[in-house]
Amino acid sequence: MSREPRAGMGPLLRLVDRLADIGAHPDDTRDERLRAGALILSATFVATLSFVWIGTYTAYGSYVSAAIPATYQILTVGGLLLLARTKRFDVFRTTQMAAFIVLPALLQVSLGGFVASSGMVLWSSITPLAALAMLGLRRSLWWLGSYVVTLVIVAALDARLAQDPAVLPRGIVVLFFVFNMLGLMLGTFVMLGYFVHQRELAQAALEAERARSERLLLNVLPAPIAERLKDREGVIAEHHDAVTVLFADLVGFTQQTAEMPAVDLVGLLDRIFSAFDGLADAEGLEKIKTIGDAYMVAGGLPEPRDDHAEAVARVGLAMLSELRRIAEREEAPWLRLRIGIDTGPAVAGVIGQRKFIYDLWGDTVNTASRMESHGVPDAIQVTARAAERLGASFQLRSRGAIEVKGKGSMQTFLLLGPA
């Protein structure tokens, strides 16, 4: 996403865009189109200015000198017609840059040197600048060399040429010197200003893309882990002595939504889990992942915190309340949630090289999952160690001992609310 063009550059960029259409090829990139448009704009600008030289030199009887800018006009119009027909911008670019080198030098020779021509050869300096902007540093060196050679030649001939200058009033010579300097400055300013502006837009687009990538990365990984990953660390794995893990599952969701259109199904899950994301963010918890219609969140990582169990408990209670509101709003009374929580040690880390995820492993994770799967709809089931950690801050009711798959008999509790 790039910034909007500045107010002063907007009309110029729109004109460049339209001019680029003259030689546009279907395979051209946006940058290639804009570069082509910039050169076409410069050529059109100079061809229009040429009427001043043609008219003035004709009026003072310098017909050979008048014929040189007229030749440039014919070359430019012919080049644009050929470009529109063949889409060979490379041909148009080469002929224009060669003309900018040769024709101002010839015009200076025809007028009798630097003074009589008002320094006409200065216009040739546009060529190496245009080459640098369009072709890059290495390919522009040839054009720079051509300009230097041309300048040296006309300088070497200047004393001889000055012996037979064109008969022009001194005021015209001075006026044309100002005209040439001003025209050259404006032409160079517009061209370089255009490319500087494009660089600013490219930089803004790069920064926006970097920010977008950063947001996407933070949607996948916790901020501290993302920073470590960007530093190209090897395996990222950490042991945490005390974390609290919550699993939530939409009871019977798959059966209830079997006949729902895909877009409605995904849309409903998106609204539910986005609401859960907001609740987790508000408590500073780390969403780990969603698995189908199940949701996993944890507290106490990647940065340790003393109140991780309390924060997860508050989020669990808020999730139940939020789902009831969603069910009422969606007219879906069958929406119900079952939640399990456990507290204890766990290992966290990043796995995978593509589509990597930040995940948790350990008995605490497995037990929290069992608390959910062996739990009660519309309720939060917690382990004895989680209940002990929550202490007197929350209301808890014992369920007694229940058989838990892979764990045997366990004392569990239902989390009812704040104390």
Q: What is the gist of this entry?
A:
With 419 residues, the protein is α+β, with helices and mostly antiparallel strands. It has helices spanning 10-20, 30-59, 63-86, 89-111, 126-135, 137-161, 170-220, 223-230, 253-256, 262-282, 308-329, 363-373, 384-390, and strands at residues 237-250, 286-291, 294-299, 337-351, 357-361, 379-383, 394-404, 408-418.
List the helices and strands and how they pair.
Elements: H1 10-20, H2 30-59, H3 63-86, H4 89-111, H5 126-135, H6 137-161, H7 170-220, H8 223-230, E1 237-250, H9 253-256, H10 262-282, E2 286-291, E3 294-299, H11 308-329, E4 337-351, E5 357-361, H12 363-373, E6 379-383, H13 384-390, E7 394-404, E8 408-418
Parallel strand pairs: 4-6
Antiparallel strand pairs: 1-3, 1-4, 2-3, 4-5, 6-8, 7-8
Largest β sheet strand count, sense and barrel closure: 8 strands, mixed
Counting DSSP E segments of at least 2 residues, the number of strands comes to 8
Distance between the termini: 50 Å
Structural class: alpha+beta
Helices, by number, come to: 13
The shape is: rod-shaped
Helix and strand element order: HHHHHHHHEHHEEHEEHEHEE
**Strand fraction band?**
15-25%
Low-confidence stretches: 1-7
Helical fraction equals 55-70%
Q: Rounded to an integer, what's the Rg over CA atoms?
A: 37 Å
pLDDT averaged over residues: 85
Characterization of the model:
With 419 residues, the protein is of the alpha+beta class. Helix content is 59%, strand content 17%. It contains 13 helices and eight strands. Strands 1, 2, 3, 4, 5, 6, 7 and 8 form an eight-stranded mixed beta sheet that branches. Strand 4 (337-351) and strand 5 (357-361) form a beta hairpin. The chain is rod-shaped. The model is unreliable at 1-7 (pLDDT under 50).
